[in-house]
Amino acid sequence: MGHQGNFNTHVLLIDAFLQNNRLDHVTQVMGYHPKYLDVFLRTQNFILRGDGPLPYDYRHYIAIMAAGRHQCSYLIQLQKQEFIMQGGDKTWLKGLAYTPQKLRNLYEINKILAHRPWLLNKSHIQKLTKGSNNWSLSEVVHAIVLLVHFHCLCSFVCGCGVREELDHTPTSERTQEYATQQDTGEPEAGVGVDTLMQRMKTLSEQTEEFSAEERAKR
């Protein structure tokens, strides 16, 4: 049984290498759970490379937008490379202001899905599907799937402490705090539970009041 499991994992890793032209660190970590890795690879391959309404460069740029909300430099770099390989306009990588208005219109829904997904409602969808530079409904669905997939993947990357690939270069998207944790892999010295609890309390007090709409949904 163990030999069969190792064989299946080996086959999955080969498939991942053929799909991505690399065996990235995320895949290697997930390799410890081959059943999950199998589903993950098939899902990600389909939403990024399978049939769908969005152009391939749009798909990878939306992935960059999602990773940017969580300042996940690992995924930002990985998707930048994929974006360029798909013939994406390098000017877009200077920032959202350099992208077509259609992509810029995803800013609000990206922010909501990343931090307060329960606030998403039909008005946000309608806003995207009407007016100039509008999205078709199928494009919106595809974009939302990409956003939530990469929001979740950011949590996996940060939670597992996945390191940068060797060919990645430092990015300006990473905050100093994130850079310190990423580069050293060590927790901040001298921080105990009481200190962390106090910080959480302070952050809670600084958080803006819930809107009437949000209170109704909680």
TrEMBL record:
It comes from the Eukaryota. The keyword Metal-binding does not apply. It catalyses: a hydroperoxide + L-cysteinyl-[protein] = S-hydroxy-L-cysteinyl-[protein] + an alcohol. Pfam families: PA26 (PF04636). One of its GO terms (cellular component) is cytoplasm. Keywords: Cytoplasm, Oxidoreductase. Transmembrane segments: none annotated. This is Sestrin.
